[in-house]
Design brief:
There is one protein chain. By secondary structure, the protein is mostly helical. The chain is built from three helices and two strands; from the N terminus they run ββααα. The protein has one domain. A hairpin with a 2-residue loop joins strand 1 and strand 2.
């Protein structure tokens, strides 16, 4: 246990990626599990174990990546491409690029 600013922090086991590129996906997946448990505490208590432990949870980075892509697409469909409420933070739609014909040197 470590105390930081008067708060107690405990180290808890959680799934680890097996490469150096999926750590962000794992953080998002772990956060998603913990938030879902926080939003439904009665269901977490019924399982009888520590609701904050991720010891018996496993993740698949490819599946997680697809889930987040779908979530982002749904949010764009529902709310448009604006982040927050300011128009000046609007994300422009991706521009389709067409391959340019190679010029022949004369």
């Amino acid at each position: 246990m470590r105390l930081i600013l008067g708060l107690a922090f405990y180290s808890m086991p959680c799934p680890q990626q097996d490469n150096s590129s999926d750590c962000g996906v794992y953080v998002l997946l772990a956060t998603n599990v913990l938030v879902q448990r926080l939003l439904s505490p009665e269901e977490s208590k019924q399982q009888g174990s520590n609701p904050w432990s991720l010891e018996n949870v496993s993740f698949n980075a490819d599946t997680g990546r697809l889930q987040f892509q779908r979530l982002i697409a749904e949010l764009i469909d529902q709310r448009g491409r604006r982040i927050g409420t300011k128009v000046d933070i609007e994300i422009p739609p991706p521009q389709e690029t067409t391959p340019k014909a190679n010029k022949v040197a004369s």
